[in-house]
Amino acid sequence: MSNVREEYDILVVGAGHAGCEAALACARLGLNTIMFTVSVDSIALMPCNPNIGGSSKGHLVKELDALGGEMGKNIDKTFIQSKMLNKSKGPAVHSLRAQADKQNYSREMRKTLENTDNLTIRQAEISKLMVEDGVIIGAKTFSGAEYYTKGVILCTGTYLKARCIYGDVSNPTGPNGLQAANHLTDSLKNLGIEMFRFKTGTPARVDKRSIDFSKMEEQFGDEEIVPFSFSTNPDDIQKEQVSCWLTYTNEKTHEIIRKNINRSPLFSGMIEGTGPRYCPSIEDKVMKFADKNRHQVFIEPEGNYTNEMYLGGMSSSLPEDVQYAMYRTVPGLENVKIVRNAYAIEYDCINPRQLKPTLEFKNIKGLFSGGQFNGSSGYEEAAVQGFIAGVNCAMYVLGREQIILDRSQAYIGVLIDDLVTKENHEPYRMMTSRAEYRLLLRQDNADLRLTEIGYKIGLVSEDTYNKVELKKKMIEDEINRLSTISVGANKKMSDFLEKHNSTPLKTGSNLAELIKRPELNYEILAEFDEERKELPKDVINQININLKYDGYIKRQMRQVEQFKKLEKKKLSENIDYCQINGLRNEAKQKLNIYKPVSIGQASRISGVSPADISVLLIYLEQMNKEGGKHEC
Amino acid sequence: MYRTDTIAAISTALGNSGIGIVRISGEDSIEIADKIFRSLKSDKKLIEVSTHTIHYGNIVDENDIVDEVLVTVMKEPNTYTRENIVEINCHGGALVMKKVLNLALKNGARVADPGEFTKRAFLNGRIDLSQAEAVINVINAKNNMALDVSLKQLKGSISNVVVEIRKDILHEMAYIESALDDPEHYQMDNYGEELMPKVLSIKSKLKKLLDNADNGRIITEGIKTVILGKPNVGKSSLMNFLLGEDRAIVTDIAGTTRDILEENIKIDDISLNVIDTAGIRDTNDTVEKIGVEKAKELAGSADLIIMILDSSVPLDDDDKEIIKLIEDKKAVVLLNKSDLNTITDDKTVRMFTDKDIINVSIKNEIGIDKLTELIKNMFYSGDITFNDEVYLTNERHKYAIYESIKSLDCVVDSIESGMPEDFLTIDLMNTYETLGSIIGEQMGEDLVNEIFSKFCMGK
Questions:
Q1: Which residues contact A125 (CB under 8 A, 6 or more apart)?
Q2: What is the mean pLDDT of residues B346-353?
C-alpha cells in the first residue's frame, strides 16, 4: 500500500483566524507552507458574533496590523459599520469595533491566502502528529497521507471532539454543523499533552423580515470612520453604513427561562466543559443576576447580502421550543423566525501552561499552537496568537531568534503571558483591566510601538518602517520645539485663556505646558505659534496625548523600568527547583511545572511569593558567579 | 521584589542600650541624610565629604534637634551592600531612633524589607558565594518573623478596616472597568463626581489609622510580657497598677479574668507588651478552659513571664504546674499578699525554682519598685530583648498606609482635573495593592473575578 508523502517547511492545522495569520506569516517569510482545514469553504469563518474589535480586542487587531498581520486589512475591506468605543474616555481605552459582512470577510481572506506565494491550502483532517526524540517531524491525515515538515502549528479552534448542544439535542459537529476533528486529541494525549474541555455558545440567527424594528433603538456607526490598518487610507473607506438595533429582555422572558431551566443541558449535566464568565448565556444571566429585570439584546446584521440577523446577548443552549418562546417575548421579536438555532459548543483544548511564551510546546520542539486551541476565546485573541505562533515557528525553522512581546510592549504580550503563566479555567478573553501599563499600550500608538519589530521579523516593508520612524521623529521634534516656545502673561494671552475658560498665567510659560491643560490643545494654540509647520493629523494627535497625559505616562514608564529588570533575569529550563534550598514547597512544585523563562514570569505564578523570588535572585546570582558550570 | 531604591532600617536591636544605628542604603542615601543632618564641625554637606568618614552633628526635624549623632558616610562600592550607605549612630534611646528612622522615611527612603540589606549585599556581589545558603536562611527567617509578627500582632480592628477598605476599592474599580469593557452596557459619565465622596471617606479612614499608628502602634510591639498565676492571686491588680487605671475587672471571685487583656506599658524607655491571662488551674468551665489554654500558649512565646503566687495560702499542685511552665523562660516570681499572714515564703518557693523571687503587696503598692528595677536590669544587661522585626513591620505597615493615602490623593487630583474615568482606576489599583501588603494579599485575579461576579458582562 502506498500513501501520499510530501514535504513542506511548515504545516498549519486549521484555517480559522489563528490558522490564517500563522500560514500567511510563514509563507510571507519565504517558507513552504501547507495549511489544513476540514472545509476550504469555511476559511476565516466567523461562527459567532459578526464583528471584529471592541474594547481591548480592537487594540489586539491594531497591534497585529503594526506587526504585519492581516486581520486589520481584511476587516477594513469588509466592514459594514464602524464605531470607536469609549470615545469620551481616555485615549488608552478608545477601542475600535467594526461590524463585518461575514461572508465577504471569509471570501477576502481566502482570496489573500490563495494569492500568497509558498502557501498551499489542503482540505483534510490531520489525525496524528509525528514526533521523533521530542522533535516534531510532521503530521498524518485521517486518510493516511504523510506530510514531513520542520515545524507544525496547531490552530484547531473549537473543532477537536466538538459537540453542539441545545436542549437534549447533541450533534457531534464543529460550529455551524461543520465536520469536527475527532482524532487529533488522542494523538496529543499520547504525546503527553494535557487537555482541557471548554465550552462556549452562540445565539440564534433570525430572519430580518420577521423583526419589527420600530420597537427598537437604532444604533448607528461613526460619522468619521477610522480604519483598523495603519496602511489603509481613511479617505478610501468612508462609506454608507448599516445599523444595528437595541432591544431588551423583560420579566416575561426571564419567567420562561426560569420555568424551563431544568431543560437546559447545563443543568442536566450533559455539558461538562467550562464556559466563559464574560460571555454568559441568557439563562446564566437570568439565574445569576436575578435582580436585573432586563438585559440588552443587540440585533446585528450578518452581512449585506443576507437577511440573517445575530441576536447579541442572547446566546443559549435551551431547547428549540424554549428558544422560540423566549425570543418572542422581546419587543420587536414577537413574530421572529429563527434561521439557525442558538447552541452551546464543547471542544477539547490544551492547558496552555505547557507552552513557552513563544507559543512553542515546552516538551516538543518545533510544535507551536495558537487560538482557541490554547484556551482563549475570540477572533482577535486567536489571530494574534496564530501570528506569534506562525512567526516563531518560522524563526525556529530559519534558525533565527524567536520573539516574545512582554506585558509592557503590547496587549498581545499580556494575553500570551496570562495564558502561559496563570491558571486558567475558562476560555480566556482579553480585557483592558488585564493590561497594567495600558496608558502606554494605546490603540493609537500601536504602530509606534511595534512596526520596528514587524520590520525586523520581515513582515513589514522598509517603506512602512521608514514612515513610522519619521513619524516618531516628527512627534519628538515637535514636542521639544513646543517646550522652547515661551509665552508671556500678556493681554493677548489673558484674553485667549479667558475665552477658553482657562486660568490666567501668573508668570511666563511655554506652549507644551499650556497644551497640558484639559481645556486647551495643540490646534487651539496655533495663534501663539508662528513658526508652526503643517503636520499630519496622527502626529498632532500623538503630540496632544503625550503632553496631556505626560505625568501618568511617565509614572507608568517608571513602573515598566522596574518590571523589565525582573524580566531580564532569565531562568534556564534545565533548573530543578526541588534542588534549590529555601524555596517553599509550593513554589518548588509550581516552578517545576511552569518552568518560567524569567524571574519576572516566575513572580506572576500564583503560589510563588516575594520571598521565593528573593531566593531565586540569590540562586541566579550564585549561578552567574560560578559561571560556566551551570547554564543560566 | 527586587528594587534598587533607597532603604532604611534600625540595624541594632531596639532598646538593648541607649545606642543604636539607623542605616540607610541606596543611591540617594547620602542626599537623604543631608536633609536631616546638620554638622556641628564644618559647613560641608555629607555629599561633599570623603568616603568612609565620620561626622559629628545633630539630626534635625526642620529646626528641632532630635538627637546628637555620629554619622558614617560610606560611598559605593566598598560598602556592605555595595551601595551608598549612611549609618547614623544615635544616642538618645529607642524612641529617638524611631524618630530618626521616620525622618529618613519622610525624606525619600523606604523601610527595608526583611533581610533586604543582606540580600542587596549578596546581589551586589559583596557576600561570598559560599554564603549564599546562609543569606537565603537569613532572608527566609526574617521574612517568616515579619509574617509571623504581621499575622499574630496585627490588631484585629486594623486588619478589619483594611479588608473593608480594599473591598470597597475593588468594587469601584470593577464598576469602572466593567463600563470600559462593555461601554454599551454600563454607562459611566461623570462618575468621578460620584466617586469623590467615597474616596474622601476611605482616605479619612486611612488617615485615622495612620494617626493612631503614630500615637500607638498598628501592631503590638514591645517585650512580650505575660502575667501568669492561679486565679485570684492578683494578676489583674498588678496589671492595673502598672497601667495606672482599672482596666481588668478585679473581684474576689476566682476566675474573673476570662479574656486575655493586653496592654502596652512603658517602664522608662522600655516598652512592655503586658498580657494578663486567665488564671491557670484545672477547670471544667469551657470558656475559662479556652482562656487557660491560651495562657499556656502565650507563656510559650513570651519574652518575659511574671508569675504571681499567693503567700497567704500553701503552695499547691496548680502552682507547681505553673512553675514548670516558666522553667526555661526569662521569669520573675512575685510572692503577693505580703500584707497578710505568710504561709508560703520565699524559701519554700526556692525549692522549686531558681528565678528571682520578690515579696510584694500589690494592694498596698509595696515591693513593686523592686520588680520594675529588676526588669530594667534584665533589659539593659541584654538578658531580655525583643525582635526588631516587630518594630520594622510596624513601620512597613505605616509606610503602606501612607503610600495608599498618597495614591488616593492622586485619584482626587485626577477627578478634580476632569480626567476620564479610566485614569481613576490606575491609582485605585495602587491603593488596593499597597494595602494588600499589610494583610499579605496580592492583586492576583481579584479584579477580574469581581467584575464577573458583580457585573453582568458581555454579549
A1: A36, A38, A141, A142, A179, A181, A183, A184
A2: 87
Contact status of B433 with chain A (Cβ, < 8 Å): no
What DSSP string describes A555-612? HHHHHHHHHHHHHTSB--TT--GGG-TTS-HHHHHHHHHH--SBHHHHHTSTT--HHH
- In the stretch 132-151 of chain A, residues with CB closer than 8 A to chain B read none
Contact B184 A619 (CB under 8 A): no
pLDDT of res. B337? 87
d(CA A174, CA A180): 5
Among candidate residues B11, B218, B34, the one with its CA nearest the CA of residue B116: B11
CA angle A130, A131, A137 (to 5 degrees): 70
Contact B452 A610 (CB under 8 A): no
pLDDT tens string B25-75: 999 999 999 999 999 888 889 999 999 999 999 999 988 898 899 999 999
The neighbour count for residue B317, using CB atoms within 10 Å, is 9
- Could you give the number of structural domains in chain B? 3
**In the structure, what pLDDT confidence band is assigned to residue B252 with cuts at 50, 70 and 90?**
very low
CA-nearest of A438, A416, A423, A469 to A557 is A438
Homologous superfamily of A569-626:
GidA associated domain, C-terminal subdomain (1.10.150.570)
Residue B139 in domain: no
Q: Would you kindly state where each structural domain of chain A is located, as residue ranges? A: 5-159+182-197+347-457, 205-345, 471-558, 569-626
Average confidence score pLDDT of chain B? 81
Total-model pTM: 0.84
Residues B95 and B227 both lie in one domain: no
CB contacts of B456 in chain A (<8 Å) are 280, 285, 288-289, 292, 295
Q: E-strand spans in A492-570?
A: 509-510
Q: What is the pLDDT of residues B77-121, one digit of tens each?
A: 889 889 999 999 988 676 788 889 989 998 999 988 878 888 888
In whole angstroms, give the CA distance from residue A271 to residue A125: 25
Q: Do residues B210 and B238 share a domain?
A: no
Which among A49, A86, A618 is the nearest to B119, CB-wise? A618
Instruction: State which residues form the domain around B240.
Output: 223-380
Identify whether B77 is preceded by a cis peptide bond (ω within 30 of 0): yes
Residues B322 and B373 occupy one common structural domain: yes
A residues 265-324 lying closer than 8 A (beta carbon) to B: 276-280, 285, 288-289, 292, 295-296, 298, 312-313, 315
Is B1 part of any domain?
A: no
Residues in chain B within 8 Å Cβ distance of A292? 456
B141 located within any domain? no
Interface test with A, best of B2, B131, B178, B413 (most A CBs within 10 A): B2
**Chain A (569-598) residues lying within 8 Å, Cβ to Cβ, of chain B:** 569, 581-582
Q: Measured between beta carbons, which residues in chain B are less than 8 angstroms from residue A439?
A: 426
Interchain CB contacts (distance < 8 Å): A and B: 136
Distance from CA of A55 to the nearest CA of B (A): 5
Pick the CATH number of A5-159+182-197+347-457 from 3.40.50.12280, 3.90.1150.10, 3.20.20.80, 3.50.50.60: 3.50.50.60
B183 in contact with A, Cβ within 8 Å: yes
CATH topology of domain A205-345: Elongation Factor Tu (Ef-tu); domain 3 (2.40.30)
Cβ–Cβ contacts within 10 Å for residue B367, how many?
16
pLDDT of residue A344: 95
Contact of B137 with chain A, judged by CB distance below 8 Å, is answered with: yes
Residue B116 placed within a domain = yes
A631's grid cell? 547554564
- Over range A394-422, report the average pLDDT: 97
Put simply, the answer to whether A279 touches B458 (Cβ < 8 Å) is yes
